[in-house]
Amino acid sequence: MSDNETIAVMNQYAGDAVAARTPLHHVGLSELAEVTDNRDASVELQEAAVTGQLILRIRGDLHAASEAINDVIGVQLPNELQFHEVTSERGHVLIAWMSPDEWRIHCGLDDAYQLEEDLRSALSGITDTTMAIVNASGGFSVLNLSGADVVPLLKKSTGYDVREANFPVGKVVGTTFAKATVTLLKTRDNQWQIWVRRSFADYVWLWLQDAAREYGLKILTEE
Amino acid sequence: MATAKHSKPQARRLETGGTIDRSQPLRFTYNGKAMVGYAGDTVASALLANGVDVVGRSFKYARPRGIMTAGIDEPNAVLQLGGTRSTQTPNVRATEQMLYDGLVCSSVNGWPSTDFDAMGLLGKVGGEVMGPGFYYKTFMYPASFWMTYEAVIRKAAGLGRSPTMPDPETYDHMNHHTDVMVVGAGPAGLCAALAAAKTGVDVLLVDLQPEAGGELTAHQSDELIDGVAARDWVNQTLSTLQALPNVTVLLNTLVNGCHDHNFLTAVQRLQDHIAPKQRQSTARQRLHKIRAHQVILATGALERPLVFANNDLPGCFVAGAIVTYVKRYAVAPGERLVVCTSNDAGYEAAMAWHEAGKEVVAVLDARESVSGAAFDAATRAGIPVLPGHVMFEAKGKKRVKAVCVGMVNSANTMVLGSVKELECDTVATSGGFSPVVHLASHTGTRPVWKESALGFVPGDSAEALHTCGSVTGEHKLRDCLATGINTGQTAAAACGAENTAAAMAVPTCETAEVCDAEALYLIPHKQTPTRAPKQFVDLQNDVTAAAILTATREGFENIEHVKRYTALGFGTDQGKTGNVNGLAIVAHALGKSIQETGTTTFRPNYAPVSFGAVAGAHVGPLFDPKRFTAMQEQHVELGAAFEDVGQWKRPWYFPQGDETMDAAVRRECEATRTSVGILDASTLGKIDIQGPDAREFLGRVYTNSWAKLAPGRCRYGLMCGEDGMVFDDGVTACLAENHFHMTTTTGGAARVLNWLEIYHQTDWPELDVFFNSVTDHWSTMTISGPNSRALLATLCNDIDLSADAFGFMDWKAGTVANVPARVFRISFTGELSFEINVPAHYGAHVWAALMEAGKAFGITPYGTETMHVLRAEKGFIIVGQDTDGSVTPMDLDHGWAVHPQKPFSFIGKRGMAREDCVRPMRKQLVGLKTKDPSVVLPEGAQAVELGVMLEPPVPMIGHVTSSYYSMAAGRSIALALIKDGLNRYGDTIAFPLLDDRIVHAEICKPVFYDVNNDAQKA
Predict the structure, then answer these.
(1) Which of A212, B127, B349, B751 could lock onto A43 through a cystine, CB 3.0 to 4.6 A?
(2) What is the ipTM of this complex?
(3) Interface residue B934 vs chain A (CB under 8 A)
């Protein structure tokens, strides 16, 4: 049986007609962005629009799998604790190491189905290698943090070592954030990304507001 | 009133000197009396400046007590701080609390007043009642005595009052990782930090005080270091450190614990020195959690007071405190000083006093022959020095008036010859220095007695822990600077720093000639300790030398036992001034060395920390995460009452107007049974399972068979532990041949995923299968009721919803309200029911569309309570409510969900076949119908046989697990676990309730509605 018959791959994109709500939709971040626009703040927070998110699991020949993935998205599987970003005709794609047999791929929400199909066909023929792909686009909030005081803010929130030497740009870890579990990425100097499960997003939002009080918090909307 | 004779404000403030800011007077009140101090004062220095002698009454004997030290070791000046009910802070050491304008404080144990204490009379009675070992002896006597004793204790004790209102302050935590952490910013710590920092490693320097420098700052030392006055050298070095990008300095920060693997906790007082009304809205205190590669303890040493008769009289200070009050705060807390010392430190107090223009009556030096720089300076200044003399008793009531002086033998064990009295109002004593070994001890190492230093020093630690400075027992400035540099370089090298050779040279300083100290702890009296006036060892707990000797006589020879028997070292100061003196007394009594006697165990915290700092920001709304579904906003708009299910907030019921819960639930039940209801089921755990062996794996973790479940079909399954007991249940759908969608209970989601992973990774790694949580990805809404099909048809035109095409326990993919969806035709209500799953970012949209389209059918949102009633009417179990970890599938009469004939075993198969699991008379799940159909049994009600005598012990035969009033059945219904219940349908049993009612109920099959399942299969 081919993959398509044994796995129920589903196009989950509803098209442009139905708005995809982020986990923090209820907060009204765009109104808050207007309110905080002129504020003297050293922490900036922005919730990314809903993106396509694929959980990628592979066991077996990771080298061959990496080549196959490179053919599809133009970048190899990242090594442990790393992520890669690439922009191609597919748009912007990010692939992050999550655990020894798990990676996460961010892509356009409208591309998630096609990317899953492409990856399945690219990975399906590899000898002694098994894989699973799960569309989890609705499951996470993607929060971008920037500003001069992001590091102290992170130090108030996680026990992980976020010093430059231990956490350079391009690194990703799964860790605790207050009492939630998150994935933490450093995307640029003083720019970090947090992936948190949808149901915990409101808690993390409350936490960030409280922890950022002493630094000043400005809300940004997506450019 | 002791303050009366000093009616002039700040009468004891010196005209010049100190680091206080005389241009900034600060008003404060102490015990309701208005006073003034200066910026830079501690509460203690301000109280002394204002002539306050008595700051509290002692714990057991209610004796007047005064300020004794100038730091963290203070046993007496423990005050209640705060002017309002919400800002009350108990047990604040006046010696550490910086003064601010408007500060309100009071003594904690003086009732009705500290100066005239009614307890002072009672105290003597109480004191005798409460001899050493009081607490332990009490329990040996008849229990009825306790009431008498307790009244005395309750009145006599009471170190402070708790606030009665919520704390308006906030607190937070901050994590640090560093290469080298230095505890203590005295001369050794500053050198260590700088030496390490210069190699390029990350350095975190922490000090308790608001200023760096340790004793150099406290004593405003004008010794020369690298050619500049010590206090200037301190400031320069600190500035250098603070300018380095790899250095973090935390002042005002108490390292309260040194835990395993170089994890240290430290509490920083961010705003305690600011008047509450002027504080920022940010945290009052911050708990730092520090993980360090190397730790350097430069914690210094605390000066020991000498123990003599009536040594607790106000006016008796530790010698170093006199220096600090005079030179740092410009306060001379008296006029005529007598110093008694066993080492050179006492001379510093005498010199400071003398230079402040006050009279030094005498320096009594226990050493027979004294020489050296300190002695010479005192002699040059004309201060009378009496070598070989001690002061063995102080006299006075609320203040020292005189001291009794005599010659002491060379072993310092006996007073010789005639004695004389010296008039004075202030006493300073020094018995040497106790290195602050506490943090090293927290790591499990025992302190080691260092005879040359007459103190305990840290033992070897298993951690990467270094020590330098006074904590090593080397108190000379030159040694502190040198060991600091060395240790800093060593620690940096241990972090991998390479250029340690290029690091700094040891700063130069003067090297004065020192006279060796002598061992002296308890100053001998003319009389034995039991006959002499009280000689206090631990002032906070009123532990005397006599009490310690009593303990040793009663057979308490281990120091840990002596501590617990006498309460030595138990107070909020943890015996910082008294421990070593107490040990020495025990050692002497037992004829052992101090090393043999050993110390008690020092555990975190080094000094008390506030609960607020420990809690941090994890309070109020942030105490625990609240998890919401994508439809939370809509539930709030509909006025839902919420129920906690794990961390989830689930709608419990949706009251309309002022509807009660009962009324709302009845309305919701009726609407669902007669038309259509809608439930947010998103919180159910959802696990995507893929792989060729997915089906095989399911067969091993569920009790039933999955081999033949076709794509497009769903099946209910029970999960058991190895013991055969049910621990989760749910419906799993076959999405495709190698692809399944498992649902779990809301609370069990994480546990089930872990369970699957553990079994896959440890027992069956050969199975090719992947598990991924999709709980948060899918929003799930269940529409239930006879009109649910008609409702779904209005929003879905790509699924044939007819009963023939879309049967019970089928699932279909399609489009609902323009959103791709998986629709499961499963039912937890017993009605025709569709569970619609859509990606969560579309959840709110689809919910809104269903609510809008549902208006035509009177769609009614329902919560967990209605769900519980509807499922109970059908006898559907809730794992965790109807089961409790001791219930097998057979006990639930769910044998139909167990397939022991499967080729491979399944988890729980052997467990449920154990003798105990197949014996008769197990508790089994049954239904109950009360004889009076209007009576609803309370959940948890215990069952007994009808007619049994209600005299304990009454044989219990089971209990109610679920109980509701059922509109559909027109009566109350209940589920219960009853012994042998499955064989007792038709029997009547009794439930004696707490309110003395006895409810009779008939055991029945646990299905109260639609016995033939016509509705859910419609």
Answers:
(1) A212
(2) 0.97
(3) no
